[in-house]
Structure formats: structure tokens, C-alpha cells
């Protein structure tokens, strides 16, 4: 029976170092771009704030500020959810206005066509 020797410790691993938090950068960029193209663009403010805090996560973590990285990650997550909520609200309002005012405009076009005949 063969006994494998224990692995030597990894010199770059420190058990006291916490794991790097998720930075939410991709989510914030996607929510901001989608909001700019399909809504009124008000959500770009919260999207840019989320992108700024997302980029701070890696910088603070690499500098050794683990609490600051966690705080920036939490703020970036909150800004993503706020931006995504504003995008969803904008899409819903666009759909509602399309059906309400689009139907009225279609009726007006039919009336103009019938009047001209």
C-alpha cells in the first residue's frame, strides 16, 4: 500500500486572506447599455455609479483593503439592482405607452383616411 506524501504548502496562499468579492462589473455595464438604448437614459446615472464602484473592488482588494473591497462590491451590487429595476420600469412604461398611444394614433389615421375618401 502506497501512502502519498502531503503536499507542500503553496507559498502564495495565505489562509488569512479573504476571498475576493464579486465585482459586478459585467452586470453593471450590460444594465447601463441596455438602459441607454431602450429607455429614457435616466438609469445611466446609477449605472455609471455602479461601474465606478465595480472597478474599485479589484483595486482595493489588490491593495490589501479587504473591507473596502467588500463595501465597494456591496454598493456595486445595489447599483446594479437599482439600474436593472429602472430598466425594467422603463421597458414596462414604453410598452404601456405604445399600446395606449399607438392605438390612438392608429385610430386617428383610420379616421383621416375615411374622411379623405
UniProtKB/TrEMBL annotation:
Pfam families: CD225. The chain crosses the membrane at residues 29-53, 78-101. Keywords: Membrane, Transmembrane, Transmembrane helix. GO terms for cellular component: membrane. It is found in: Membrane. This is CD225/dispanin family protein. It comes from Siphonobacter curvatus.
Amino acid at each position: 500500500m502506497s501512502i502519498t506524501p502531503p503536499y507542500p504548502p503553496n507559498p502564495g496562499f495565505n489562509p488569512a486572506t479573504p476571498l475576493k468579492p464579486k465585482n459586478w462589473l459585467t452586470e453593471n455595464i450590460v444594465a447601463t447599455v441596455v438602459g441607454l438604448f431602450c429607455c429614457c437614459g435616466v438609469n445611466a446615472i446609477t449605472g455609471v455609479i455602479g461601474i465606478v464602484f465595480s472597478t474599485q473592488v479589484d483595486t482595493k482588494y489588490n491593495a490589501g483593503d479587504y473591507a473596502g473591497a467588500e463595501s465597494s462590491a456591496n454598493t456595486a451590487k445595489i447599483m446594479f439592482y437599482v439600474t436593472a429595476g429602472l430598466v425594467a420600469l422603463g421597458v414596462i412604461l414604453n410598452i404601456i405607452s405604445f399600446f395606449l398611444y399607438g392605438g390612438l394614433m392608429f385610430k386617428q389615421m383610420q379616421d383621416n383616411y375615411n374622411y379623405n375618401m
